[in-house]
Amino acid sequence: MYVTRDRALTAPAHDTSAVVAELRDRAEITDALYRFGLGQDLKDKELFASAFAADAELDFRPAASKWGAKPPLMSGRDTIVTTILTMFTGRVDTTHQVTNTRITIDGDTARLTALVEAQHLLSADPARHALLKNPYDVDLVRDGDRWVIRRLRIDNTWYTGEPTVIFG
User: Fold this and answer.
1) Mind listing the pLDDT tens digit for each residue in 46-94?
2) How far apart are the first and last CA of the chain?
3) What DSSP string runs through the chain?
4) pTM, to two decimals
5) What span, in angstroms and rounded, lies between the C-alpha atoms of 154 and 140?
6) Rounded to whole angstroms, how far apart are CA atoms 29 and 124?
């Protein structure tokens, strides 16, 4: 599941323009995942939507299976944005922290793996919460000067709290 190359950059160190272009791509690729997390945390529909390609898929089934839930595969940017923000807005406060990003780029497609720690608190009763440590496996596509998520698969390594209260 993880990107395990033995270095971050593939551009030759002596090729300054190729290094700069690759660094820009890597920053934009990582930013797509940041937009995903922060868009949820702020309940910012435009920011959250900007993380996804129109035909994106979000697969939370591997994570949810750890506590017995069976959510559907979400397909399409509009469906993803509406489903997630409707489920959380006014009910659940979230914070997402992204670490251990690893990226491979192949032309106009890329793959990113990361660990994301996601805290979810019920707004009306913050003592009821779920803290999740989730490996993310992300396929991205170039969208002009930025990158967007085409497919996001979320697994779960461990959790504490009550994810069934948050997610059903």
Assistant:
1) 999 999 999 999 999 999 999 999 999 999 999 999 999 999 999 999 9
2) 26
3) -----S-S--S-TT-HHHHHHHHHHHHHHHHHHHHHHHHHHHT-HHHHHTTEEEEEEEE-HHHHGGGT--PPPEESHHHHHHHHHHHHTTTEEEEEEEEEEEEEEETTEEEEEEEEEEEEEETTEEEEEEEEEEEEEEEEEEETTEEEEEEEEE--SEEEE-HHHHH-
4) 0.95
5) 14
6) 35
Nearest Cα to Cα of residue 28 among 95, 105, 134: 105
User: What's the rounded Cα separation, in Å, for the pair 151 and 111?
Assistant: 10
Burial class from Cβ neighbours inside 10 Å (0-12, 13-18, 19+) for residue 106 reads exposed
Tokens representing 91? 């009910």
- For residues 3 and 85, give the distance between their C-alpha atoms in angstroms, rounded to a whole number: 29
Q: Which of 67, 88, 81 is nearest to 155 (CA)?
A: 67
Residue 156 to residue 132: CA distance in whole angstroms: 7
Return the structure tokens found at 113.
């793996």
